[in-house]
Design a protein that fits this description.
The chain has about 230 residues and is of the alpha/beta class. About 30% of the residues lie in helices and about 20% in strands. Strand 8 and strand 9 form a beta hairpin. About 30% of the residues are buried.
């Protein structure tokens, strides 16, 4: 097994040069160097030229990927009784304020929480649990809404959220290695258009410093940011 892993790593090293790749080249190469037997996630990392110390330079938002990410997003809807049925019909996996107590006990087996503004004051006691996991509902990510059913439908049909980390980098999953090159290309282009559109007006100099594509357990491939 160790010999096989070493052989695969050597193949990868031989394949990847020090140049930056076009989007077409990078996707094709990524498929060649992915050796895992499961349907690996295709991930993108974008290093932005922003000052993370300034709140008005933080980049975050949502984007609807044309072909989704190839994974069922598990949604919890924290809504009042009158919104429960609509949230269930929209596709929420878990619904109701009873889950607040469950979260207090350590349960966070979800990907996204959607909430209505009226229940946000009840989330204070679980903020320390949700915050570090990136699960706290946020109006800027369209996860706090008067129409949670609409947000849930959008999430289930391919809408993802993004935000810069403390180093000014955005990490996101944008598909699966089994996706066709066209599907991956269209998803990445849509994602990058949105990131560029969200450039802070106060950000000066180079905005897109570097872009890397990778899959689960694969090496990263540098993209030529000029293609965007």
């Amino acid at each position: 097994m160790l010999k096989k892993i070493t052989k695969n790593r050597n193949k990868i090293i031989e394949k990847i040069s020090k140049k930056k790749y076009s989007l077409e080249e990078a996707i094709s190469l990524l498929k060649e160097i992915t050796f895992v037997k499961f349907d690996a996630s295709v991930d993108i990392s974008i290093n932005l030229g922003i000052d993370v110390r300034l709140p008005n330079q933080m980049v975050k938002g949502t984007v609807k990927l044309p072909y989704g990410i190839g994974k069922n997003i598990c949604v919890l809807a924290l809504v009042n009784k009158e919104k429960e049925l609509e949230s269930k019909e929209a596709g929420a996996d878990y619904v109701g304020l009873d889950y607040i107590e469950k979260i207090k006990s350590g349960w966070t087996n979800i990907d996204i929480i959607v909430a209505t503004p009226s229940v946000m004051n009840q989330l204070g006691p679980i903020g320390k649990i949700l915050g570090p996991k990136g699960l706290m509902p946020d109006p800027k990510l369209n996860t706090v809404s008067e129409t949670p059913e609409k947000s849930i439908k959008e999430i289930k049909s391919g809408r993802i959220s993004f935000k810069t980390d403390r180093y000014g980098i955005i990490h996101a999953s944008i598909g699966r290695i089994s996706f066709s090159e066209k599907y991956l290309m269209d998803n990445i282009k849509e994602f990058m258009v949105t990131i560029i559109r969200n450039k802070p007006s106060t950000s000066k100099g180079i905005y897109i410093k570097s872009i890397y594509l990778s899959t689960t357990m694969s090496n990263s491939i540098p993209l030529d940011s000029k293609v965007f």
